[in-house]
Amino acid sequence: MNTPLPLASILINNYNYGRSLPKAINSALNQTYPNTEVIVVDDGSTDNSREIIADYGNKIIPVLKENGGQ
Question: Do the bridges between strand 36-43 and strand 8-14 make them parallel or antiparallel, or are there none, so unpaired?
Answer without folding.
Answer: parallel
